């Protein structure tokens, strides 16, 4: 058992997709691994679910019934949080006076401020950590408005802006690879790196999330958040210490150096059939695909293009970061410039892998140069280790009060600034067939995308 104080967890959006797929399974996993303190989980939302919440989010695993005794549901809204406040007080009385609160707010940007005001009215902001799901506003002005409302009610250290990509094991591995080894950092700059690609294609469509997609779109859902955060980890300078302050400072510096996007280097796509999805407007121009080129105007990265690409209903699901290296200065073997330079590839999917594609001598009597791969397979390297899923990790960090893997206001606001030119004049939306690679090739890079 952990020595963390007991917690009352309030989950808004408790009957939604995120709660069902990630939050409840994540909390259950933490509980089964003795990582959670004693908890009461109060799910909330505007309407009482038709089924008991604990049945709705049921997991088929040993221990579930015992864990589920801790789950209840209380309806609440921006106008009325009285029942919820009573339920939180009752749960706290049960848990004892050192009980803490964690409030998880996963609501659309338009609803966030109203909910924050309700928390204040009901005193639910006291002794609480507030975890906020993205998107944080829909542009710079609304993000600032949200920040003002938040800081009116909460102290900065009570706020946890979650970007779950930062909880992925493999993302932290970018830091370990770079800063715990002597091998990579000396070549991690424009003198040696020709391009960086961050590819997050997804096979899934919108999976019933029409209202969310129609109001958010892929640019706000994925680029201004997850993909830019990955770019931040790849591009940041070595912090003196990897802690909350060190990471936030260095990431904020990268984002300050990020050049505001050029809409001429951004491609938007929409999969064919999107407009026929239930809840989608017949003439919707919402993008389900984005490919773009970003530039980091600092000493280390000057002139190195960062290609970011993501979309729904594509041929494969991948989360891949590719660092492409420059060719050797002289072709001592004759013809080696075959258009396939060395690439360091980080696969961030659950089967994490890091590999380097390079050239080697094919065994045999001739000096024949061929392509080969050096691979770090995590399952084989650490057979006894159990990876922690992103939400599990971040929920635990929020309970502990560790902000290291959360995003800061400064980062969020700067990223909206960088996105502003595209929000103001978005490129036309190009149709693409489902199951394809989307219109990525409309944005020519030095070597196309790492696909297939
Ligand atoms: C979410 C987005 O934040 O991340 C989804 O809203 C996306 O649109 C998802 O599918 C991808 O997350 P993961 O953990 O599956 O890589």
UniProtKB/TrEMBL annotation:
Pfam families: G6PD_C (PF02781), G6PD_N (PF00479). One of its GO terms (biological process) is pentose-phosphate shunt, oxidative branch. Gene3D superfamilies: Dihydrodipicolinate Reductase, domain 2 (3.30.360.10), NAD(P)-binding Rossmann-like Domain (3.40.50.720). Belongs to the glucose-6-phosphate dehydrogenase family. It catalyses: D-glucose 6-phosphate + NADP(+) = 6-phospho-D-glucono-1,5-lactone + NADPH + H(+). Signal peptide: none annotated. Residues 175-441 form the Glucose-6-phosphate dehydrogenase C-terminal domain. GO terms for molecular function: glucose-6-phosphate dehydrogenase activity; NADP binding. The active site is at residue 226. Residues 10-173 form the Glucose-6-phosphate dehydrogenase NAD-binding domain. This is Glucose-6-phosphate 1-dehydrogenase. Keywords: Carbohydrate metabolism, Glucose metabolism, NADP, Oxidoreductase. NADP(+) binds at residues 13-20, 46, 134. PANTHER family: GLUCOSE-6-PHOSPHATE 1-DEHYDROGENASE, GLUCOSE-6-PHOSPHATE 1-DEHYDROGENASE G6PD. It comes from Pseudonocardia oroxyli. Pathway: Carbohydrate degradation; pentose phosphate pathway; D-ribulose 5-phosphate from D-glucose 6-phosphate (oxidative stage): step 1/3. Substrate binds at residues 164, 168, 202, 221, 312. The keyword Oxidoreductase applies. GO terms for cellular component: cytosol. Residues 427-452 are annotated as: Disordered. The keyword Iron-sulfur does not apply. Its EC number is 1.1.1.49. Catalyzes the oxidation of glucose 6-phosphate to 6-phosphogluconolactone.
